[in-house]
Amino acid sequence: MQPGLVESKERTWRCGGGDDLSTYFSRAPWSQDVASAQVGALCIMSRRGIFTKGLQPTSSCKSSNIQSAKGNEVTATTMQKWILTASLILPLALCVSGAAVPNNANCKAVHIIVARGTNEEPGEGPQGPIADAIENMLGGTADSAALDYPASIFPTYAKSVATGVTNMKKMITEYATRCPQSKLVLMGFSQGAQVIGDTLCGTDEAFFPSTEPIAPTLGKKVVAAVLMGDPTHVVGAPYNVGTSDHNGWFPRLNDKECSGYDNIRRSYCDDGDVYCDAGTDGKVHSSYFAKYGADAAAFVVSKVKSS
């Protein structure tokens, strides 16, 4: 059998990069769909000799046509067959090659998950530079990934938050399982901050469906949680930073029951913020990145080093 191209609609890719499947789950474009992961599966198996006539390895994984050993582009129909083939034989291929999933070479000592704010474009958004600063301060031992969720406004806000919580729990579970020695950091802005709080503490805010907190064994993996402009902000909480003296739109009712996370949380909210302070100044809500970004990065690094 000859491996070939995995294509997702208008995109095609070629092999390259590391020899671990998780490489293909990390950043765009690989993280955007399941087919991308199957590209990684085929590339890995090709390099490991599972297929004797494989894709031609190149120096990078980027948009380009993948060609077979004979130099012919593989059709989308054939691609569908190889997606199925990869999904069926990848576990065996990894087993035969002795590639243990936990603690593999692609695991970082620190993994940052970033939840964007309402109506922001998919990705890490304005929190990205803060995550980058943390990675630099930790000397390349950390990486980051964006939470995939709708981040939509009303009338689907509550559903969007619930989806975010579900996906956040899944990301935490999968990374902790694959990289059990790694530490996790959560960062969220606006709706993303609410998602993080609901993930750790469970959802009990008014007007939102109730959810359970993440399992304690997984919660212990989280060494820092940075919240900016959190609509569930509770005035007077010991982890608050900023000038706010009001509750947010949806103040968390179970905050005391979630006090076990007080030491790792830092929530930034200033007076006048429309969402976390129930104020009237729309500019405040977007000011935290420049105003508190350095403090947030230093907080995370201190928690990583002390945990």
TrEMBL record:
Pfam families in UniProt: Cutinase
SUPFAM superfamilies assigned to the protein according to its UniProt record, in alphabetical order: alpha/beta-Hydrolases
Keywords: Disulfide bond, Hydrolase
Family annotation (SMART domains): Cutinase
Domain of life (superkingdom): Eukaryota
GO MF entries: carboxylic ester hydrolase activity
Coiled-coil spans in chain: none
Name of the protein in its database record: Acetylxylan esterase
Species this chain originates from: Arthroderma otae (strain ATCC MYA-4605 / CBS 113480)
